[in-house]
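Title: Prediction job returns without error message
Component: structure pipeline
Severity: low
Priority: P3
Assignee: unassigned

Description:
Job completed but the reporter wants confirmation the result is attached to the right record. Sequence as submitted:
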Amino acid sequence: MGFHHWKLSNMNIRINRVAHTVFSLGPGQRVVLWVQGCSRRCPGCASTDTWDYNAGENIDVESLSKMLIRIILDNNITGLTITGGEPVDQAESLMLLLKFFNNEVNEKIKDRVVDVLMFSGYTMNEINEICPNLLTELTAMVCGKYDQTRPRTNCLVSSDNQELVIIDKQFEDIYDEYLAKNDVPIQFKLDSSGITFAGMPNSGDLDIIDKKLRSKGIVLGGKTWQN
């Protein structure tokens, strides 16, 4: 039975924001979904605005999947990145979202394969215990709790205790090529809600940016990387 027969409209997922044409959170041009709510709450996290389970927007997974597909079609996107927040805290909703998303991608996009990368503070073993079927919907994942005392060793992890796992082996070369860059710039986007950054900063990088802006008379308020 095709997945489009599932009653997805009864399942919601809480999200923080969506950004597209992002090249700093995985190979190619990507659409990025930040989910809302996090139980990991790692010290030094750069996105503390995604911790509160009562913040953000509650959206049904079918509507969100259609929105993501539309962004991909309109902007020549090659991948979906899911971060947060903690995606695995909403594992059931996320799995349904990705089942619908992957089914629609395969039906509507014939000129390229769209990969799915997820960032999680849980280990691989923990994810297997919580929701083992979730892994079958992913191309790759970065897993493990962020440790601000351990500098990152490549451009897709935040600290060197974290692990990049390529689940779909046909993408190994694409991810190896991306990792070979080793130093991907942080992207900043300005809109009516403020300045959003996308990327994997080193510990202290955002405070350095803040100080440099202050030296030019620009003061940032509501910084998500300060608890």
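Comment from assignee: result matches the submitted record. Residues 91-108 form the longest helix (18 residues).
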